[in-house]
Amino acid sequence: MSEVMETPALAEALALTDAVLETPRGVGRIGSIIGEPGTGKTHAGFYLADHQQGVRIECMEGASKRTLAWQIASAFGLPTEGSSDALRLRILQECEGRLIVMDEANHLTVKQLEWLRPLADVGGAGLLLIGTDLLERTFQLGRNVTLLAQFASRKGAKEIRFAPMDAIQVSAFVLEPRFGAVGKQIATAFHQGCKGYWRDAIGLADACARIMRVEETNALSQPIVKAARHAMARR
What we know:
The chain is α/β, with parallel strands linked by helices and about 240 residues long.
């Protein structure tokens, strides 16, 4: 986690994964995190996989089931030869009680989601899907409602949403851990620059730190925040 504190969103996500892993096998060891791009979902995925001693998989658009199976088997340190179903059998023998984080899960197809479901139902893994609203829509579109009925029933209400942070949260969980206590005007200017998005807040903090090194100062100021905002806007 480097020098950034755990946010309330991360704490909520950790509680969600605890609930997923504690659910009886075959009942619903599936959960999801939904949010706009830049709200910290990927950051959470790495954190949760590390904290829960699980694995994180980056789902890729257009990837086959075989590729997906290879990624998961490789993450578990298992042999990766054979078909997707052969790999799944190996994974089923090793995944009980382990968290499998599927980041960018909106890239998964209906068939891939159904291919994953036995890892939770039979293998006893905790399956966490992370994606944008497109993931949620996958479960709501036309015949997907029927095709994914069992998957959706396993997931149930085990879903949380990541949203942009307010100025107080940005100050508490991004600015203060890195720069110490800052005034309200600085915190407001910083929040206006990142609009509460986790990814932009981290990028803006990095830009501020670079300018502070150049100017040989340890104090964050409004001019530094303004200069950092301009530097990011030029990218």
